[in-house]
Amino acid sequence: MPSIAAIPEPMAVDDSASKKAKRKQLKAEAAAAAEAAAASSGKKEKKEKKDKKRKTKEPASSDEEGRSSTSSDSDRAPSAKKAKKEKKDKKAKAEPAEEPANDDGELTASGEEEEPADPNALANFRISDKLKDKLKSKGINALFPIQATTFALVLDGNDLVGRARTGQGKTLAFVLPILESLVNGPHKATRRTDYGRPPSVLVLLPTRELANQVHADFEFYGGTFGLSTCCAYGGSPYRPQENALRQGVDIVVGTPGRVKDLIEKQKLNLRCLKFRVLDEADEMLNMGFKDDVELILGKVEDVTKVQTLLFSATLPEWVKKLSMSFLKADRKTVDLVGNEKMKASASVKHLALPCNKAARSQIIPDIIKCYSHGGRTIIFTETKESASELSSLIPGSRALHGDIAQAQREVVIAGFRSGKFLVLVATNVAARGLDINDVQLIIQCEPPRDVEAYIHRSGRTGRAGNTGIAVMLFEPRYKFGVTRIERESGVKFEHISAPQPTDVAQSAGNEAAEAIASVSDSVIPVFRQQAEELLSNSSMSAVDLLAKALAKAVGYTDIKKRSLLSSMENHTTLHLQTGRPLYTPSFVISTLKRFMPEDRLSSLHGITLTTDGTSAVFDVPSAEVQDYIQGAENVAGVTIDEVKQLPALQEREQSKGNFGGSRFGGRGGGGRRFGGGGGEDLKTV
Ligand SMILES: Nc1ncnc2c1ncn2[C@@H]1O[C@H](COP(=O)(O)OP(=O)(O)OP(=O)(O)O)[C@@H](O)[C@H]1O
């Protein structure tokens, strides 16, 4: 079932529109909302849609319980190209009939015009012409399901809790009806426009970057009605924000700390507030803004005069409590995720890859080469220190975290948005809400502790109907972290091994071949002589030499092997089989000692038992592979082979015995070599 809690009774919005036209538009809006919800439930049969249209005429009822449905967009995960084409076709189909321009920005209901076939087409909603034009200028011709389902509810004055998966357009779900409400809707008559007016709208967000982004949306769309917006976030000077507030603004978008300061300094007055919006409310709790948010919400004296909207992709307990305390009793809930098992974006391909901490900086550039398709990549680390450290090791990347000065953070985000650099290494400061074009790949350096973090981080790709890839790295011995995220998020990870240098080289070679084809012929006379000399002095064929030239052009002079278990360069994963239980890593070591000198075993890494317990895998330096294989040949009942594909491995914590510790794998000690695993502070972003 779609989870629209209620479709409201139609209400008048624009006095100048004919009653007939209004009735028609309201009917279409309610039908579109029902269609949106139906589409998102995946039930597309016409008959069912008709039934739902009929249901929309029933009176509203409040509902605090989330009910689930699946977004039709998110049910499919086609190739990026296919998805783009489908999206284009969908947009073209949704193009509404031309409507006469209305310079006052007033709502002109479609009158006697035919309703566009797409129930979510802009023409089916009480959106004024000016705003429609702005939306179309951004390629938006129809509303997304969360927008279509909530539009009338917000415009008609309801408090609302809205939930949809990442990248499904929650921002416009509040921006559009708020703007219409202020300019053409219920608040038109009472909205102040004088100098020094207090704001009508307050939007709270957890991070400065997000505040900036939502501020830009309000400026872009609200600017069309002459509404002014002020962005209030910490780390930036007070003076410009205070000046703007003194002159009077319509909309304030900010982070809780700075908004609270401005209220306490009596620079920000909430007495004329008509809307307050909490976006990513749960993250505000994570970031320690709980008291500030509650204090700010508590500043509104007459809550009957203010509409409160709460949006997020995840709704943990505090957010539910917040909505009970601060939203009206007859609030509506529109939950397009609900009890669906899959909480993360389904237009994202979720991959899990075993990788030791020490190997991260080697392997990540290769993952980028293989999976980013030339687009942007965001790498998430658990701490600010590791973000800075990793960024220094990954060529062409920049770091973003809470210890970087605000001005610099803005430069970094602007550079990433504009494509000055394509790899951002960030803490959770970039996990929420950031909407950056063409982010193709997300890499998480380890499974985050909160499933919400996984959902939001991976949701920085696969937005607005596009596809994307999210790769989560994990230490082989902490595989249970992957299982936990899988269980809690509903994601089914595809398990992959590290891209082998040959894979990476091949994809780089393809790019180099394209690049060579685009080189101007003007270079030929200059380089021909050297090319001829090279060919005549070499015993190689022209093709082999060209292959070498391609390799060199993309920075390869050698291809190194990488182990499947821990992704370590120049290491190989071996599989020890005995046909009998091996019990623990220490037991594996005892078995190996039967044919390998003990001192040689110190270079062995990450012993992990297979699920049936009768065999184990581990990494050894590639130069020593033959010693192990040949050694085992002399012992009855023991075989050792090179692993081509990892067998199913045990997840439980390994023994803390002698050889189960930091040196040979297992969890005990958290050896420096493989990193300490936990113990890093997620809260410091
Ligand atoms: N109706 C629409 N048609 C096409 N594109 C849209 C539409 N609505 C929003 N978008 C685009 O979709 C992208 C994602 O929107 P938005 O950032 O609001 O998602 P979100 O649901 O808030 O995601 P998150 O949970 O990650 O914050 C934006 O680039 C936005 O411009």
TrEMBL record:
<feature type="domain" description="Helicase C-terminal">
    <location>
        <begin position="362"/>
        <end position="520"/>
    </location>
</feature>
<feature type="compositionally biased region" description="Low complexity">
    <location>
        <begin position="28"/>
        <end position="41"/>
    </location>
</feature>
<keyword id="KW-0347">Helicase</keyword>
<dbReference type="Pfam" id="PF26142">
    <property type="entry name" value="DD_DDX21-DDX50"/>
</dbReference>
<keyword id="KW-0694">RNA-binding</keyword>
<keyword id="KW-0378">Hydrolase</keyword>
<feature type="compositionally biased region" description="Gly residues">
    <location>
        <begin position="658"/>
        <end position="679"/>
    </location>
</feature>
<dbReference type="InterPro" id="IPR027417">
    <property type="entry name" value="P-loop_NTPase"/>
</dbReference>
<dbReference type="InterPro" id="IPR044742">
    <property type="entry name" value="DEAD/DEAH_RhlB"/>
</dbReference>
<feature type="compositionally biased region" description="Acidic residues">
    <location>
        <begin position="97"/>
        <end position="117"/>
    </location>
</feature>
<dbReference type="GO" id="GO:0005634">
    <property type="term" value="C:nucleus"/>
</dbReference>
<dbReference type="InterPro" id="IPR014001">
    <property type="entry name" value="Helicase_ATP-bd"/>
</dbReference>
<feature type="compositionally biased region" description="Basic residues">
    <location>
        <begin position="44"/>
        <end position="56"/>
    </location>
</feature>
<dbReference type="InterPro" id="IPR059027">
    <property type="entry name" value="DD_DDX21-DDX50"/>
</dbReference>
<dbReference type="InterPro" id="IPR000629">
    <property type="entry name" value="RNA-helicase_DEAD-box_CS"/>
</dbReference>
<dbReference type="GO" id="GO:0016787">
    <property type="term" value="F:hydrolase activity"/>
</dbReference>
<dbReference type="GO" id="GO:0005524">
    <property type="term" value="F:ATP binding"/>
</dbReference>
<dbReference type="GO" id="GO:0003724">
    <property type="term" value="F:RNA helicase activity"/>
</dbReference>
<feature type="region of interest" description="Disordered">
    <location>
        <begin position="649"/>
        <end position="685"/>
    </location>
</feature>
<dbReference type="InterPro" id="IPR050547">
    <property type="entry name" value="DEAD_box_RNA_helicases"/>
</dbReference>
<feature type="domain" description="Helicase ATP-binding">
    <location>
        <begin position="151"/>
        <end position="333"/>
    </location>
</feature>
<dbReference type="GO" id="GO:0003723">
    <property type="term" value="F:RNA binding"/>
</dbReference>
<keyword id="KW-0539">Nucleus</keyword>
<feature type="compositionally biased region" description="Basic and acidic residues">
    <location>
        <begin position="57"/>
        <end position="78"/>
    </location>
</feature>
<dbReference type="InterPro" id="IPR011545">
    <property type="entry name" value="DEAD/DEAH_box_helicase_dom"/>
</dbReference>
<feature type="region of interest" description="Disordered">
    <location>
        <begin position="1"/>
        <end position="122"/>
    </location>
</feature>
<keyword id="KW-0067">ATP-binding</keyword>
<protein>
    <recommendedName>
        <fullName>DEAD-box ATP-dependent RNA helicase 7</fullName>
        <ecNumber>3.6.4.13</ecNumber>
    </recommendedName>
</protein>
<dbReference type="Pfam" id="PF00271">
    <property type="entry name" value="Helicase_C"/>
</dbReference>
<dbReference type="Pfam" id="PF00270">
    <property type="entry name" value="DEAD"/>
</dbReference>
<dbReference type="InterPro" id="IPR001650">
    <property type="entry name" value="Helicase_C-like"/>
</dbReference>
<comment type="similarity">
    <text>Belongs to the DEAD box helicase family. DDX21/DDX50 subfamily.</text>
</comment>
<keyword id="KW-0547">Nucleotide-binding</keyword>
<dbReference type="InterPro" id="IPR012562">
    <property type="entry name" value="GUCT"/>
</dbReference>
<dbReference type="Pfam" id="PF08152">
    <property type="entry name" value="GUCT"/>
</dbReference>
<dbReference type="InterPro" id="IPR035979">
    <property type="entry name" value="RBD_domain_sf"/>
</dbReference>
<feature type="compositionally biased region" description="Basic residues">
    <location>
        <begin position="79"/>
        <end position="91"/>
    </location>
</feature>
